[in-house]
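re: ur question from yesterday

yeah so i grabbed the chain u mentioned. its 308 aa long if i counted rite. heres the sequnce exactly as i have it in my notes:
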Amino acid sequence: MTTPHWCLILNGKSAGRDDVREAVAACRTRGVRLDVRVTWEDGDAERYVAEAIEHGVQVIVAGGGDGTLSAVAATLARREQPAAALPALALVPLGTANDFATAAGIPDEPEAALALVGQVQARPIDLLRIDADGDVAWCANLASGGFGTEVTVETDEGLKKMLGGLAYVITGISRLGRIEPLPARVQGPDFTWEGGFIALGVGNGCQAGGGQVLCPQARVDDGQLELTIIPELEGEVTGALGELIKGGREAVLERVATRARLPWVEIVSAEPLTLNLDGEPRKARHFRVDCIAGRVRMHLPLGSPLLA
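ran it thru and got these structure tokens back, copy pasting raw so excuse formatting
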């Protein structure tokens, strides 16, 4: 029987965690050959993925938050090989918010997350391919723009270390008096919207920014992205605040949001817009986002809410 060969690509911020070391030791005790590589600077993830493929690794595990997952997934997506010929992808959630892992039902504990890899088969999942004025990037979870993006970009790293996902809430409250709508034209197959928006989400996964469920119906294996637009509120402010008090954030979104499920979407603006791609901000006047079906294979829990 062939010994399973995995590679854990670990975000350098989590390299000193005792629970990660214990999880790696437990995995090796179960008979898995588990290499560990720690990212330190740009380009490390790409180099480690190339090395893993050369050495015949069967599973590449991203150890970190949504940004680490996206970096590893993007590196796999840029390879010439089809998904079936590439190592499978897995995730040990070690970030501040862990939005993808939370939505997917991946265990929080590193040992349980690694154990999951040996318990379930990898299955094809979609990725988002983003062309920002000719600059191509990939996104595993969710691309967001507007108010939520500004909150995520402005949230202090020290505050995130102390408060976790609550840091995004505090930063958001501090910005409430500075929400300005962003004008844009958004279009896809049989869909067109134009106006000012305060938040926009293009989801492969359903949440970002520490639990903001922007795209609740997004699934990672259906070949579709979910688009959510929160328009400028104006006369809706009073009603929206009432809904927030009575029903919470989701009720407000249902009241004011425009949604569509599409294979691709274009976002065009006269002024540069910023989209946050799993923590990586990209600025452009023209974005084209395509859902690339089954681009990688990933180990997800059976019955995961992110699976169609």
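noticed a couple things. The chain has two domains: 5-126, 131-295. also The first helix runs from residue 18 to 29.
anyway ttyl
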